[in-house]
Write a structure and sequence with these properties.
single chain; Rossmann fold; 8-stranded mixed sheet; 4-stranded antiparallel sheet; 12 helices; binds adenosine-5'-triphosphate; binds magnesium ion
């Protein structure tokens, strides 16, 4: 099952903090601990789904990998290259890591036609111009299911799903090894969602691209991911094979997320309803505080004294992966 190849991505003990001013006219500032020691590895061609409530740090993780946000501590290595140490022009000339965001309208320049949106990176990174560039751009559009006569149109002339295809084509132009997809289908209607997901999967099959796939919708994440990482207050609390995490969640927080997800199967609906009664769906604690103990203990129906005092370390879970919870049955 394992290969000797080094992992595509290795993230170790990543911390990101934001200084936030209380008010425009003084009032001091406070610190948001947005990532609190995230470690993970990804293999080439793998999809790692990232789930968690709003504010759990999913986008911050994606932006940290892309170096769109400052790192407080920790390391990021992509194919062995120390991404955390890159500076200035070195950062601008990265090709291996690209992004597709939720709102293609905000991420595509409205004043540029598609030929330039997709073609510009080909000039900047590969020096392609003229006919050569046009041919490559047309081939990329074809790859994402758009037609060559779309080349001279502006983003506003497309539907949401088509705009997301343009964003994918632009990311693809640089032949990346990893694409951070931050809620790429959340703004689309359900049938368009599945078309874009199918496209991402087809591209993965053809080019072996890995995806860090961030989403709220567990059903979507389960469908597309090989493994899932569950985030809570800036930490990964559970990670493992997608099916195992969804069918046999080991962390009470994962259980809570699943209980909150809509399902159609009546048997499953009853099971989730029973779960919801067990777990109080209270508010997320402040991201500006670091509580002692397990980050989830204030909301966990099973919390005991040790959960309030000691940070649990990751332990292996039957069926694959790990969870950081004091109450897991001892492995062995
Ligand atoms: N630029 C910023 N300045 C200050 N705080 C920030 C900034 N970006 C994110 N945060 C804070 O960091 C924490 C993590 O935010 P993040 O956007 O990563 O969460 P998320 O899991 O992506 O949430 P959502 O599901 O709503 O997209 C939150 O408390 C958020 O308010
Ligand atoms: Mg987000």
């Amino acid at each position: 099952m394992t290969t000797d190849a080094p992992p595509l991505l290795e993230v170790d003990d990543l911390h990101v903090r934001f200084r936030v001013r209380r008010g425009v006219f003084g009032g001091g500032s406070y610190t948001v601990y947005a990532l609190r020691g995230v470690s993970l590895t990804m293999r080439a061609g793998e999809t790692l789904g990232v789930v968690g409530e709003s504010g759990s740090g999913k986008s911050t993780l994606g932006r940290a990998l892309l170096r769109l946000t400052d790192l407080h501590r920790g390391t990021i290595r992509l194919e062995g290259q120390a991404v955390h140490a890159l500076k200035g022009r070195m950062l601008d000339f990265r090709r291996d890591l690209q992004a597709v965001f939720q709102d293609p309208y905000a991420s595509l320049n409205p004043a540029m036609v598609v030929a330039d949106i997709v073609g510009e990176p080909l000039t900047v990174h590969f020096g392609l111009r003229g006919r050569e560039r046009d041919a490559k751009t047309a081939a990329l559009l074809d790859r994402v299911g758009l037609a060559a006569d779309h080349l001279e149109r502006y983003p506003a002339e497309f539907s949401g799903g088509q705009r997301q295809r343009i964003a994918v084509a632009r990311a693809l132009a640089l032949e990346p090894r990893l694409i951070v997809c931050d809620e790429p289908v959340s703004a689309l209607d359900v049938s368009t969602q599945s078309q874009v997901i199918n496209l991402l999967q087809a591209l993965q099959a053809s080019f072996g691209i890995a995806y860090l796939f961030i989403a709220h919708d567990l059903a979507v994440v389960r469908h597309i991911s090989h493994r899932i990482a569950v985030m809570y207050l800036g930490s990964i609390v559970e990670m493992g094979p997608a099916q195992r995490v969804c069918d046999q969640p080991a962390h009470p927080y994962t259980e809570m997320l699943l209980a909150a997800a809509p399902v159609t199967d009546p048997v499953e609906q009853r099971r989730r309803k029973a779960l919801r009664r067990k777990l109080p769906a209270s508010e997320l604690p402040s991201p500006a505080e670091v509580l002692p103990g397990c980050p989830f203990h204030t909301r966990c129906a099973y919390a005991t004294d040790i959960c309030k005092q000691q940070l649990p370390s990751p332990s292996p879970v039957a069926g694959g992966g790990w969870a950081a919870c004091h109450l897991l049955p001892a492995a062995g």
